[in-house]
């Protein structure tokens, strides 16, 4: 058990170091030597765990997708049909906005945009491990709101996509693709606008 735990901890340390180095230097300029030094492990240890630099990069992206999934699902859990829909959607929307606008999320998106041409499978990794699952969870919660009489939905999955687009769409421009930190008042403003527009389309009149 001690050996297994140590191997898991070492793998996690490598993944965290890899993301730090890739986010700072970019995939092409980053080196396995730098990742090893940052993680405090021997270079051959990285090759033993991951095989090569490209596999390490994919694994680092997958780990960040898993982390984003956990944080987004935790936010969506609070969307319950017994609550006031405006209040519940606003709270969930603000939490999702914070997840979308945190530093790691922006770094992942910048890396994807830079490397999708040579590694198109990266988008599939993020979609399958995070994006699709988040949308499914949100669709399930919106369907519960509809059953409780708070929303009018013909397709909860479409409604979930629309809510996500209303919520995240403005932040790319406002943050200058993550190079400008979004203050809380702007997060709240965008969230409130998204909820109001969403309820005009799907709310019960």
Low-confidence stretches: none
| Mean pLDDT score | 94
Label the structural class: mainly alpha
Number of helices: 9
Global outline: elongated
> Which percent band covers the strand fraction?
under 5%
Give the end-to-end Cα distance, rounded to a whole number of Å. Answer: 59 Å
The assembly state of the depicted protein chains is single chain
Measured on Cα atoms, how large is the radius of gyration?
19 Å
Biggest sheet details: none
* Series of secondary-structure elements, N-terminal to C-terminal: HHHHHHHHH
Helix content: over 70%
The tally of beta strands, per DSSP, is: 0
Describe, in plain words, how this protein is organized in 3D.
- There is one protein chain.
- The chain is mainly α and 205 residues long.
- Helix content is 77%, strand content 0%.
- The protein has nine helices and no strands.
- The protein has helices at residues 2-25, 32-39, 43-50, 53-76, 85-100, 103-115, 121-147, 156-174, 184-202.
- Helix 1 (2-25) packs across helix 4 (53-76).
- It starts with a helix and ends with a helix.
